Amino acid sequence: CAPNDLVGGRHFGGFTRPLAMAITPADGGASVSQTAAAGAIDYSDLMPKEEDLLYEEELLRTPHVTKLWCRYLDARKDATVKRRYLIFERAVKALPGSYKLWFAYLKERHEAVRGLCVTHPAYAALNNTFERALVTMHKMPKVWELYLHFLVEQRGITKVRRACDRSLASLPVTQHERIWTIYLGFICQKGIPVDTARRVYRRYLKFEPGHAEEYIEFLRARGHWDEVANKLAAIVNDDTFQSLAGKSKHQLWLELCDVITKHPAEVTALNVDAILRGGIRKFTDEVGRLWTSLADFYIRRGLFEKARDVYEEGLATVITVRDFSLIFDAYTQFEESMLSAKMEAAAEDDGPESADGDGENADDNGTDFLFKDAGDDLDLRLARLEFLMGRRPELLSSVMLRQNPHSVHEWQKRVALFEGNPTRQILTFTEAVKTVDPSQALGKPHSLWVDFAKFYEIHGDADNARVVFEKGVCVPYSKLDDLATVWCEWGELELRQKNFAGALTLMRRATAEPPREHGPRPTAAEWEAMPVQHRLFKSLKLWTFYCDLEESLGSLESARTVYNRILDLRIATPQIILNFALLLQENKFFEDSFQVYERGVNMFKFPHSREIWQAYLQQFVARFGAKKLERARDLFEQCVAAAPPKEAKLFYLEYAKLEEEH
Question: How far apart are CA 486 and CA 488, in angstroms?
């Protein structure tokens, strides 16, 4: 075909329009039309050359083969831009659904405008070309990506937004992530209206709810703290939310607390007090930090008295020393800052004196009143700070007791804190004996009752000391020895008060056996399960103290009665046997003492009976010598028969000595 056939508008390779119209792209971006308008149309560069005739003939026969157009374009790589654009336009006209041709065409034109100013007409022309391509390529994500990147370069907010919306509406949801990456990258740039970006992000979160943290970071960077707090509260309350950054619910909660406490003026949609108190109940390992955050919230809002109430409530509820130290340090820092601010304000108010004497005299009364009021306020704040520092040991003691209210040692330390204040000490003792459960006590619970009674005794109130002991002996102690100790301390109190008869009466009352129900004797397990008050009559400690009292204050008969009762209860020790026998010997009851020895050696076996046998044989030989030699021999025979081989040597030597001497 000749070139003039093209000009005339004859059919050639799918090119049916007049050449002047065909080489004017629909996007208005080519310069040929401008040249034609100027009256100097030069078609020589656009006309097919001799080497193009082979491709043109093939395209004339089969214009709808993509390969032919691609081979034609590859062969004309060195052609001018206008010539290649013309071939591309013919190709996409013949094959409007060819992704390969459209994408190659768009990429080539995109590369051509790179480096030009965005106001250049070539940008508008390429935009139109993209729009023509998307008529058939609206399902191709690569075309949309190329178009969106191109629009982002132009910084056209509305164009980008509308194009992104169209792409999301055109593409299947499985490919939306590719569009959202471009969309979010664009709205996060500087200069984009924040409201527009927020609306776009909210739409994205409906598509990807798990990316809420990215939105929170975006809002944080833009200073929208109210919405930051709302989103954090939403994801904290959402049990199905999984942090992509690997943050736990605990970390997200702490972030929420930081936001709502540091920006109280901006956060208005949430109940900050309820949120932080809920966190205090839920996250017990961060109680101190949350209490200080709540107080800091009220401080930033200027509610200083409310902040003090929060600090006091925190100090009264925490149970760990770490949390207490955190709150107390923050509290003291707050009071110090308030005091410093007041001192600075007072220094500023105390300006240079006026040079005018009349004016100074006129305002003298008012100024004195103001300075006096400021001074009183300053003294009040200083006294408040000193009072807080002085309360620290007491507050710390309260924390330790909240950790374990049954710690006897901590109660004793608390009593010592109020040294010099009897009223507080009595109240502390009273609270201690009411609180400590003997079954859960850490330490010796009976020592609280004893110390309480001694406190009254030291202050000269023996009657109240007896009342304390009376209540102390009714406490269900877990150990029998604790109850016996209380009775013994009560008896020593009576001795110090010179009430000897009362002490003996007290011991008789303590050692009296309670009435027992008819039936079999209790087993060992049942005996241990009985209350200690029912088992007290078998307390050796109590009986030993009773014996000492009877020997010192009572008669011989009463002392013998006590010792015999011990032997009947079968709670005696070898030392009790020896003491009883010695008491009888001192009072010339030798035969009775020998009977006590007999009961002792029958009650105990070796090695516990060794001392009893030694004392028995020595006393018997010293008393009778050769007068009752046969009886002495019988005693030695019984002893060496009962003694093990290792223990028998000493007794054989004594036996031989008896025979040698007598």
Answer: 5
